[in-house]
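Q: How do we represent a protein-ligand complex in a form that can be generated token by token?
A: Start from the inputs.
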Amino acid sequence: MSKPVNVAILGATGAVGTELLELLESRNFPLNTLKLLASPRSAGTTLTFQGQSIKVDAVDDKAFNDVDIVLASAGGSTSKAWAKTIVESGAVMVDNSSAFRMNPEVPLIVPEINPEAAAKHPGIIANPNCTTILMAVAIYPLHRVQPIERIVVSTYQSASGAGARAMQEVKTQSQAILDGKDPQAEILPYPLAFNLFPHNSPLTDMGYCEEEMKMVNETRKIFNEPDLKVTATCVRVPVLRAHSEAINLEFKQPFSVAQAREIIANSPGVQLLEDWQKNYFPMPIDASGKDDVLVGRIRQDISHANGLELWICGDQIRKGAALNAVQIAELLIEKSWLNKTDSPLEV
Ligand code: A2P
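Then emit the structure tokens for the protein with adenosine-2'-5'-diphosphate bound:
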């Protein structure tokens, strides 16, 4: 068994942070000590772990002393602000934010896809964007058998992607509408209850929002396919938890539906869920709280001989964030990859 390690969760009070706690407990993670860190707003509050109350501390210069692994999920600016301190303290940061994902020195890891890329790192390993992880884990098993040439994806993203307060906001808005009042939007830019809107991340010059460009660039990096053609349309929908995605894949040659089904049914991290008689396919309520990404409606693209259509649902907080981060930490421990390379990282 691996030697137990000292872990800190940065952002322990958030939607992903609380899931990290649950996963460390339920997965029998080789844990020695656990520190819970958040903003000064939460300092002094407590969270329960293995039946015991643990105090939440505000993060400071000394917070990472004697810590081996920091699971960070407190936003990009917090990760950037503390990265140097974490690395200089001798810890490895598994970062759930987008701050370092596209840095060429920083591995971007989905353990089912590119675990070996985590062997060398500068003290930071990036956890990919949630919609990207869910898509990548579902389609990589097909890509491994026959390379994908082009991906066209549309997402249906739940409020959980914008954090615990956004989830609460959708509930409050729903109640307001049922009470005949105007829904108020404070966390998300527009009312999401009984509504939807294109993803609220900033727009880039090309007209794509940042979330969409993450799907493009991060998929290329994870697959190690810099020229892979990817286009995405990301949409927020009034679902509390778990994202859905309609994915169109174009291969070099025809890919049989039967073979795709068999591959998905036998690949790690994914589960085939289809009942064609009942018209029953993955739904966010099926995926919520589950580790696996659910895949269904695998069918021939009638507009293209080399095309396949897929529908997936995955828990954005779990495999899309917390679970993938914990799997990365487990990988580092199991393979003894906690040592960082000597090359300094500009942070
Ligand atoms: P806090 O609860 O004290 O605000 P979510 O993504 O669900 O909104 O959660 C964000 C997490 O990041 C929370 O745990 C939040 O703590 C934490 N956080 C936000 N800003 C900071 C900061 N400046 N320093 C440390 N933790 C932060």
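The first strand starts at residue 5 and ends at 10. The CA atoms of residues 242 and 315 lie 4 Å apart.
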